[in-house]
Amino acid sequence: MAKKRGKKDPLWARLSLIFGALLLLASGGALVGGNVLLNHYSDQITHEGGLGEAAASGATINGPINLLLVGIDERIGNEAMGARSDSIIIAHVPATHDAVYMMSIPRDTRVRIPASKETKYNGGTDKINAAFQFGYQNGGGRDKGLKLLAETVSNMAGGLKFHGAAIVNFDGFSGLVNALGGVHMCVDERTTSIHVGWNQKTGEEGVPYNFNADGIPTSLKPNMKPQVYEVGCRDFLPWEALDYVRQRDKLANNDGDYGRQRHQQQFIKAMAKKATSAGVITNPIKVAEVLGSVGKAVSFYNNEISLADWIFTLKGVDADKMVTLRTNNGQYKSETVNGQSFETLDPTAVELLKSFSTDTVGTFVASHPELIANDAATPAATPSN
């Protein structure tokens, strides 16, 4: 019998994710008479800066909108260990403001990272998840880490500009999922947890696998049975949902990081749908819990645009119109340079990135429907624009 987890895995607690920003926008837009609550929590959520030369000019979101959503591996209280962005999602809202397209950038993608004089980084070629670290180091912190990452993504995407960005803290994010009371999700491939299992003799919860020096799971521990998520749709308890989207090593399709990216995007959609459900937005106590949790989970860099304007502009976005996209069609495109393995973007992924700048994502996806990552037993979304 499943039990609620009592101990968080340190890697996951630092890894975070990215979902709170879209949840904030989706849930806030559906609130009636919620301005008092939004104003109350605005100072906790919004931050200035963070985008540097990648920031969209003009401080307006009347047209198409691009958001950079980042989950970081941060050593709280140990700045010398730095921080890397292990989850990177670009979210695009077309000028019609009625849909969201989400594309993940693989963390091992080989890119050119610009210099950061403020943090004494001279620039160079590296994995994209190192960009945040080079901006974070030498006192740069989150603001400069996000700035260098945003500028790196902007350059690789042909000058893409961002209207906002978000960083998510796991501990607060965990509270956010609990405030929602879990989510309804569809598992698209059999997924075995390497973090949660139970001793078949004692019934006690524990980590089911042994790991090698690189953190890769090897053999099952004696008498341990791992948690398994079978294909199909059901209601997930908060701890189950968070555990499911962590997994990348024991996925049935052996799609690793690409599978995890897809599940993370599907989770964003599931949370946005739950946040805009009648059971949440019509319950003042639940609304306060959700917004309070968002404030603890999300650092939203609003690019000098008020939170109220963000909410008003995106109020028409329906969770069912959130389209999750497969980078490289979900297939590894690896190359080895000087003995180090990197990911590369295939020509279709490069063209998809360019479409974010020209507000033609919907048209591009319509001509490449294979890029849409659907939930299990869920038909393909119909792209607009």
TrEMBL record:
Q: Which InterPro entries match?
A: LytR/CpsA/Psr_CW_biosynth, LytR_CpsA_psr
Q: Note the Pfam families from the entry.
A: LytR_cpsA_psr
Sections of the chain in a coiled coil: none
Q: Where would I find the Cell envelope-related transcriptional attenuator domain in this sequence?
A: 84-276
- Which family does the UniProt entry place this protein in? Belongs to the LytR/CpsA/Psr (LCP) family.
Write the protein's name.
Answer: Cell envelope-related transcriptional attenuator domain-containing protein
Give the species: Dactylosporangium salmoneum
Q: What is the lineage of its organism?
A: Bacteria, Bacillati, Actinomycetota, Actinomycetes, Micromonosporales
